TrEMBL record:
Stored Gene3D superfamilies: NAD(P)-binding Rossmann-like Domain (3.40.50.720)
Pfam families in alphabetical order: adh_short_C2
Similarity comment: Belongs to the short-chain dehydrogenases/reductases (SDR) family.
TM helices/strands, residue ranges: none
Protein name (database record): Tropinone reductase-like 3
InterPro entries (UniProt xref): NAD(P)-bd_dom_sf, Sc_DH/Rdtase_CS, SDR_fam
């Protein structure tokens, strides 16, 4: 999204504070950029200091207010630090986007080592719960949580089976948290289709696989980080003030559910 888009989009997040995990590239960065261009003060984070610094520079160059913090989402001290530093700087939290995930294996479920099953559960599901536990006392009335799941959660493909299962779990987690955190905080979920990021490059860099994925969509193209950011911003904003516990599939019409 270019600099001059700031004047073309709304300012739904003016005066709001938004934390986005895993936000130094790809979908997380796209979401951060969109919320920032719409007026949010941002807290971006990922595992590596260099990535955090570079992403913050890019956002500041667009006139966006950014606090940049290293946070590996499965590290309890780093999660606590993320929330503490946010509250020290901005005094509150209005939006939290839980975006981090790992997909370290192409093994079948029954071949996946115990430690890898644990790691996927830890990062893809449990870390969202624990981060929200730290954030909850600071979430404002009217605040919003968006969890990033995946189209793979509806029908976990063999080559990413446990990843898909953790993404299925996020649909349930969204419902459970929405009920628990109502009425002050809404909790929704975005299920992206395939987006050519670093994460998906093992699929999208192969021309044949990429074409196959494009053909699976009704719109005959892969998704963009901007597509995911627009949907996330909608759910996070007051435009979605009567929506909670829902999953929005952003996958160009790929098969998901009725
Ligand atoms: P990406 O472009 O590869 O970016 C991943 C980001 O996450 C980077 O900023 C990385 O920075 C950070 N990160 C990785 N592990 C982390 C951890 N444990 N704690 C904190 N930060 C971490 O990935 P992406 O495609 O945007 O994926 C983002 C989300 O979208 C994931 O939840 C993924 O499951 C979901 N999704 C993606 C697709 C797709 O096709 N791309 C489809 C469906 C769903 P560092 O290396 O500095 O940590």
């Amino acid at each position: 999204m270019e600099n001059n888009n700031k004047s073309k989009i709304g300012q739904r997040f003016h005066g709001k504070v938004a934390i986005i995990t895993a936000s130094t590239q790809g979908i997380g960065f796209g979401i951060a950029q969109r919320l920032g261009l719409e007026g949010a003060s941002l807290v971006i984070s990922s595992r590596k200091q260099k990535n955090v610094d570079e992403a913050a520079e890019k956002l500041r160059a667009q006139g966006i207010e950014v606090l940049a913090i290293v946070c590996h989402v499965s590290n309890p001290q780093q999660r606590k630090n993320l929330i503490d530093k946010t509250v020290q700087r901005y005094g509150k939290i209005d939006v939290l986007v839980s975006n981090a995930a790992t997909n370290p294996t192409v093994d079948n479920l029954l071949q996946t080592p115990d430690s890898v099953l644990d790691k996927q559960w830890e990062i893809n599901v449990k870390a969202s719960i624990l981060l929200l536990k730290d954030a909850a006392p600071h979430l404002q009335k009217g605040s919003s949580v968006v969890i990033i799941s995946s189209i793979a959660g509806f029908n976990p493909p063999a080559a990413m089976a446990m990843y898909g299962v953790t993404k299925t779990a996020l649909f349930g987690l969204t419902k459970a948290l929405a009920s628990e955190m109502a009425p002050n905080t809404r909790v929704n979920c975005v299920a992206p289709g395939f987006v050519p990021t670093h994460f998906a490059s093992f699929l999208t860099n192969n021309d044949d696989t990429r074409k196959e994925l494009e053909e699976k969509t009704m719109l005959k193209r892969l998704g963009t980080t901007e597509d995911m950011a627009a949907a996330t911003a909608f759910l996070a904003s007051d435009d979605a003030s009567y929506i909670t516990g829902e999953t929005l599939v952003v996958a160009g019409g790929m098969p998901s559910r009725l």
